[in-house]
Amino acid sequence: MKLWQTKSWLTWLLSPLSFLFLLVTKIRHWLYQKNILKSYRAPVPVLIVGNLSVGGNGKTPVVIWLVEQLQKKGIKVGVISRGYGGKNKQYPQLVTQTSSAEIMGDEPVLIVQRTNVPLAISPNRQQSIELLLNQFELDLIISDDGLQHYALQRDIEWVVVDGIRRFGNNFLLPAGGLRELPSRLKSVDAIICNGGIPKVDEHLMKLEPSFAVNLLTNERKAIQEFTQSCVAIAGIGHPARFFTMLETLKISLIKTQAFADHQAFNITQLKDLADTQTPLLMTEKDAVKCRDFAQHNWWYIPVSAKFSEESTACLLNSIQRKLKNS
């Protein structure tokens, strides 16, 4: 939200509510620290990939990258997710390659389709972990989001920060977009900076596209081959990032359409955005919700997280040390 990026009269009007949010958050965290509120300790190490601000920071590419890196090293990993945006009412549930994004949530389905990792969804993280461990032998659980879910004890915390927007106006909800104050970063194990210029001790992540994939045929096409004008849509936390990426790749956009994060799509919403001769480009997260009614001119552009060799070694070595000592 633009409101959360700047300070205005409305920011100050909402600031008492932000202070109340901070107070409730601090009390709740203290209650868990003192074991007044009970928390769950999993029998295997848990790594949280979370953020301080609401949506659009790039957690999902980090989770995919991490799963792929750990799988290469022979580490048996599972993922838990709240399944936000899905219509599922029965929890916990395992997500498979053929699961519906409308039912299970777009991000869990995307993660499974990219990595084939065991993944369970539930608002109750303990339920998800118990389901996974009941069916799979795992060395590590990755929680996609849940930094503020203190009912789940964790061994490692990673925070993903938008390197361009950072923390907006630095106010907590609802005057700003923060769930916790930036000082929370002092207690986490790793800070991942998505784009922009990283600060000291932050690991720079770049999201790199490599090709486009046709939703109907799965044909792969070099991005440079899109020489005609295109239409682009994005139903993610920060749609402008996708549109800017396309423009950086020299793709001519005659129209862009931003949708809400986790937006549910149907053919009526999208079919008139581009005529049959004009490519309609979207994110991979959007694509998992559009396959059932995809048209021949619809393409998605997957992105992959890239880290320096130094950051990769630092991030993975800390996990391996934790697993060795657990």
Automatic annotation (TrEMBL):
Top-level taxon: Bacteria
Pathway entry: Glycolipid biosynthesis; lipid IV(A) biosynthesis; lipid IV(A) from (3R)-3-hydroxytetradecanoyl-[acyl-carrier-protein] and UDP-N-acetyl-alpha-D-glucosamine: step 6/6
Enzyme Commission number(s): 2.7.1.130
GO molecular function per UniProt: lipid-A 4'-kinase activity
Keywords: ATP-binding, Kinase, Lipid A biosynthesis, Lipid biosynthesis, Lipid metabolism, Membrane, Nucleotide-binding, Transferase, Transmembrane, Transmembrane helix
InterPro entries linked: LpxK, P-loop_NTPase
Annotated Pfam families: LpxK
Binding of ATP, residues: 53-60
EC supergroup of this enzyme: transferase
Transmembrane segments: 12-31
Catalytic reactions of this protein: a lipid A disaccharide + ATP = a lipid IVA + ADP + H(+)
PANTHER family found in the cross-reference section: TETRAACYLDISACCHARIDE 4'-KINASE (PTHR42724), TETRAACYLDISACCHARIDE 4'-KINASE, MITOCHONDRIAL-RELATED (PTHR42724:SF1)
UniProt record similarity statement: Belongs to the LpxK family.
Functional note: Transfers the gamma-phosphate of ATP to the 4'-position of a tetraacyldisaccharide 1-phosphate intermediate (termed DS-1-P) to form tetraacyldisaccharide 1,4'-bis-phosphate (lipid IVA).
Official protein name in the record: Tetraacyldisaccharide 4'-kinase
Gene source species: Mannheimia cairinae
